[in-house]
């Protein structure tokens, strides 16, 4: 793929999101939103920005985030009731997920010029593996706001802990908000 692939995919994704937002917004009026500042939420190596969301924009059907993960930065092991679709814009990473049929964790390389998805209720984790540039992606999911369950292990017997309201929907976002959630 050429060097303009990720920006083109990103542009198409944002256009699609704004079209959907136009039809799904509470007042059925177009909504134009400047990109917000990314914040770490107390997790070194993470940068997160909600581009379109339930709490900030009253989204009813979809939510869109931009995130970056520096090398060795990861989400906790987690799952949620929504489907996620990721568009890789830069860097490299690994998607780890529990494969029920294989009864083990499977790893897939993810990154720039790639699209990947995670079905609802699948335990997964994303890890940044490149130092420069960091893993950068846009992720969209249905049924906002996010309700995530975090786990201490991959073991199916680990019941996990529900996180709602979700870390990114609670405000804050500076380096003093040290929270071990997604």
SSE pattern: HEHEEEEEEEEEE
Structural class, please?
A: mainly beta
How much strand content do the residues show? 35-45%
Mean pLDDT: 83
Distance between the termini: 31 Å
Give the number of DSSP strands: 11
Query: Low-confidence spans: pLDDT under 50, at least 5 residues?
Result: 172-182
How would the global form be characterised? globular
> Helix count?
2
Strand order of the largest sheet: 1-2-9-4-7
In quaternary terms, these chains amount to: single chain
Task: Please characterize this protein's 3D structure.
A hairpin with a 4-residue loop joins strand 5 and strand 6. The protein is mainly beta and 182 residues long. Helices cover 13% and strands 36% of the residues. The longest helix has 20 residues, at 5-24. Mean pLDDT is 83; it is low at 172-182. The strands form three sheets. Strands 1-2-9-4-7 form a five-stranded antiparallel sheet. The chain has two helices and eleven strands; from the N terminus they run αβαββββββββββ. The protein is globular.
What is this structure, in a nutshell?
The protein is mostly beta strands and 182 residues long. It has helices spanning 5-24, 54-57; strands spanning 46-52, 62-69, 77-80, 84-90, 92-99, 104-111, 115-118, 124-128, 135-142, 148-151, 161-163.
Summarize the topology.
Layout: H1 5-24, E1 46-52, H2 54-57, E2 62-69, E3 77-80, E4 84-90, E5 92-99, E6 104-111, E7 115-118, E8 124-128, E9 135-142, E10 148-151, E11 161-163
Antiparallel strand pairs: 1-2, 2-9, 3-10, 4-7, 4-9, 5-6, 5-8, 10-11
